[in-house]
Amino acid sequence: MSALTQTERDILAGIADYLIPEAEGMPSASQVNLASELADRVFAVRHDLVGPVRGALGKVPGLAGEVAAKKLADIDPEGFHAITTVASAGYFMSPKTREALGYPGQESRPFDPDKTTDYLEDGLLQPVIDRGPIYKPTPGL
Amino acid sequence: MAKNPGGRDEVADVLIIGAGASGSVAAAHLAKAGFSVVCLEQGRKIDASEYFGDKPEWEVTSQKQWHPNPNVRDLDTDYPINTDESDVNPLMYNAVGGSTILYAAHWQRFIPSDFRVKTMDGIADDWPFTYEDLAPFYDQMEEEMGVSGLSGDPAYPAGKAPPLPPLPINKIGRKAAEGMNKLGWHWWPSPNSIPSKPYRGRNACVRRGTCLTGCPEKAKASMDLVYWPDAIADGARLITGARVSKIETNEQGLATGAIYVDRSGRERRQRANVVIMCANSIGTTRLLLLSATGKASNGLGNSSGLLGRNLMMHPYAAVNGLFDEPMESWLGPSGQVIHSMEFAESDPSRGFLRGGKWQVMPSGGPLGLRAGYSGKALDDAWGANFHKNTLRTFGRSFEWGIIAEDLPEYENRVVLDSTLTDSDGIPSPKILYRNAENTRKLLDFHVARAREAMEAAGAIEISHTSLMRDCGWHLMGTARMGNDPETSVVDQWCRSHDVPNLYIMDGSTFVTSSSANPTATITAIALRATKHMIANRRNQEVAA
């Protein structure tokens, strides 16, 4: 069952495109299917957001994205915060967004455990070693 | 009427309350030594496939169901905590493995002076043992946990090398180190209980950087993976969903076991010859206060009046630096990549006593970075600025996190809340905690130095947070140890001065807090106390 009605989804899409437009080489919210797809993925793992988002959307029927966003920020900060959370979380989940951002996600990046001490080979750590101990010894105290 | 589990009239040799850091160490070693062990854990067993670290939903779930603040998570397995009168929110996780499920695995020892604060600085108290007394147990814990690190850190006495090679320090670690070198300040590649190679059934770290929300790779050394398979194979019985409401005692004042509520809502009794509390400083205090009797009307084991007092939570500040180059600052481990103990020791000329530990960690994903814009004006935070801000900062910054050593303050404490309860109707704890003047001065000094370190590293923008409210990872000090029953709750072997078969092995026993992350010390002390219990089993007084 969908978390939002089509009417609610349309309002969310308008607000999301105001919040996240196409600019600076980055896609807009609608270009990554935020309101039609990614929002549902957010709601699937964050049921607590459904109520506040629906409540907020119900307060701005028929309003265009910018007007709706500014009104909600004024009259329903909690609901507006829930909408911005869904919008930004869904947006950054999109592969298209991540590619444009140069962010591969929290990917698996194995490493050679026997080649992790480059700071010993290039001398970066040497000044610390050369200064010697910095702790206060306590034997006998 | 309370029943024994399964209708059996079992009297365990040892009953452990809590399957977290200390309880897991005690359970595994006692079971291996032939003790019959029962552990009551209010949470459940988590499977690694439940973690979101390898899924796109990772960040948005980290803000709710995988948040370290139980009041934010609001899970059935948690108990709410009243923090209305606290500067800091306590953080924890309730499950098999306890808070090691969500910890960052910074496996840092305390420094020698931490155990001699009274002698060296004339404040607080000395511990009843020294760094040298604890060193062999630090060594053994590093072996059992599979710590990755580089030996020779000049902030510590020479000792045994960690069993595994260090993890990479990545670009952010190198950048931070370059700044520290310009200033002539200490830094070192950090020890983490995260294996750089496959280790004792756990996989090698692959740097997802999601340690703080559970490791989907089964790499990070959380206690559910490190200890419980062996403990259960050795006969320990782990009962999950068991919410303890009271430690019971007999007429002689000896502990006889515990009453708990199972997930069917039934009240049950588990009898035992010895009870070990391992529920963290807040949970242990809560249960011992709830176990008040006619003879111990202000809480079990509380003839000193110090139970719940001297709570320490390590106030945390952060200095963020933005650089004009990409550094992949989301890349793990997370985990600490480098740390600094340059200002960990006391220097009275600074206007305060004791010190702080610094560490560099990855910055996480773009959603977390966006959280910093939540208070900004609409036009500043959204529209084209949304992209400008993200592109300018994401992957190009890192943070020096600063852990402040907070000193034991009598008025900082855990009490029972008068109205708040958990879902079983058991009274919840309330935290009364304010930062002392010494702590505030300490944080101011360290933030100023860390800003200098960022500038030296070449940061083009520097910002800081003087005190994070959600920072109370390190819960310590509410049942301090000592030799004098009038000024301490337990002795150096973690045994109650009042109840000879009641032990407290979590961070409650800490006399002072150090500035280092405490889990290495919590477990080393638990291991030391457990070995002492095993060696002295014939002398252990138990209820008839």
Automatic annotation (TrEMBL), chain A:
Basic and acidic residues bias (residue ranges): 109-118
Domain of life the protein comes from: Bacteria
Region span, Disordered: 98-118
Protein name: Uncharacterized protein
Lineage start: Bacteria, Pseudomonadati, Pseudomonadota, Alphaproteobacteria, Rhodobacterales
From TrEMBL, chain B:
Record keyword Flavoprotein present: yes
Domain of life: Bacteria
Enzyme Commission number(s): 1.1.99.11
Enzyme class, broadest EC rank: oxidoreductase
Domain Glucose-methanol-choline oxidoreductase N-terminal span(s) in chain numbering: 13-315
Family note: Belongs to the GMC oxidoreductase family.
Protein name: Fructose dehydrogenase large subunit
Recorded name of the encoding gene: fdhL_2
